[in-house]
UniProtKB/TrEMBL annotation:
<feature type="domain" description="ABC transporter">
    <location>
        <begin position="2"/>
        <end position="241"/>
    </location>
</feature>
<keyword id="KW-0472">Membrane</keyword>
<protein>
    <submittedName>
        <fullName>ATP-binding cassette domain-containing protein</fullName>
    </submittedName>
</protein>
<keyword id="KW-0813">Transport</keyword>
<feature type="region of interest" description="Disordered">
    <location>
        <begin position="322"/>
        <end position="346"/>
    </location>
</feature>
<dbReference type="InterPro" id="IPR027417">
    <property type="entry name" value="P-loop_NTPase"/>
</dbReference>
<dbReference type="InterPro" id="IPR003593">
    <property type="entry name" value="AAA+_ATPase"/>
</dbReference>
<dbReference type="Pfam" id="PF00005">
    <property type="entry name" value="ABC_tran"/>
</dbReference>
<keyword id="KW-1003">Cell membrane</keyword>
<feature type="compositionally biased region" description="Low complexity">
    <location>
        <begin position="328"/>
        <end position="337"/>
    </location>
</feature>
<dbReference type="InterPro" id="IPR017871">
    <property type="entry name" value="ABC_transporter-like_CS"/>
</dbReference>
<keyword id="KW-0067">ATP-binding</keyword>
<dbReference type="InterPro" id="IPR003439">
    <property type="entry name" value="ABC_transporter-like_ATP-bd"/>
</dbReference>
<keyword id="KW-0029">Amino-acid transport</keyword>
<keyword id="KW-1278">Translocase</keyword>
<dbReference type="InterPro" id="IPR050086">
    <property type="entry name" value="MetN_ABC_transporter-like"/>
</dbReference>
<dbReference type="GO" id="GO:0005524">
    <property type="term" value="F:ATP binding"/>
</dbReference>
Amino acid sequence: MIELVNLTKTFGSGKTATTVLDDISFTVDAREILAVVGPSGAGKSTLARCLNLLERPTSGQVIVGGEDLTAMGAARLRDARRRIGTVFQSASLLSRRTAAENVALPLEYLGATKASTRARVGELLDRVGLLDKAGHYPHQLSGGQRQRVGIARALALTPSVLLSDEATSGLDPDSTETYLRLLTELRDDLRLAVVFITHEMDTVVRVADTVGRIDGGRIVEHGAITDLVLDPHSSLGRALRPRGPAAGVGRGHTGLTVVYNSATVPADWLTRLGTRLGLSIPVLGANVQTVDGVPFGDFTVSVPSDRVPAFISAAGELSLTVDPAPPAQSAAPAREPLTTRDEVTV
Ligand SMILES: Nc1ncnc2c1ncn2[C@@H]1O[C@H](COP(=O)(O)OP(=O)(O)OP(=O)(O)O)[C@@H](O)[C@H]1O
């Protein structure tokens, strides 16, 4: 478990002082993956460096296993930092060392014996599925394999926290998928608290349990993925719901996106709504994804504009959440997008 309490980071002083992290607080439990997202310049990398104490925060606490790392002197901190393993963007492996030698590095610094290092490195490379690549140099590995070596190295000192800083940036879809699957396995098997920093929203729903959006150095939204994706008022939730291309909406009709969690909504919801309203309801686009083992549906449908309130009311009775369809998908500017809280509340 890792806890950040009122963390701030200010660079410079006096007139040139810039506060890059402003009162950040969150907790990540063992067996939890927290994704941290945010636009470029929001403070994600600074947060990563303060979290693993590569950079001293200006104020606030980083508490791991009940101990405040920010209160420690250099010697104790060196030991305590082992509890946080970090995987950086592009793994930053040493090019003249083989995969095995890269993984061995933290153990060598610790003064582990050659025999115990060899055994542990074998175990770690096996864990990330790369035992057969032990003797390969970084340039002989794919980007995804290098990142998995990075994970093995980050795990060498048996941390309780794993920090993944933009580690899937630039990976192809298959390597990203393998990386994300490995992260969830490690979360469960090793009971890790994982902080997954990314700018790739599509990875978040696939891997994270909770998500925090950072903007201007502050956490502006934070919650469980399952809650956010169903919250029609959450801009983070909306950003997390992938939108495939939808067909255009005809004149006099309105595109509405219906979001539901299949655990709580009847499978024949569309038929029921059509019967209830005496309408045939064309589907313009659809996505179904799984969050936390529960399938979520995201359907864009076309509804006659004068029946929108009735549709929203009937949908609400079936525990469906209704959101305006993205304006870019509309063929004709048939109506103003729904903007007020009341209009989209079901
Ligand atoms: N050492 C520093 N001194 C002064 N300002 C800094 C320093 N490091 C970062 N900043 C500033 O802090 C802000 C946040 O930077 P940071 O790299 O943490 O953002 P980010 O969210 O990781 O961005 P990106 O996604 O583009 O990497 C930026 O405005 C940056 O210029």
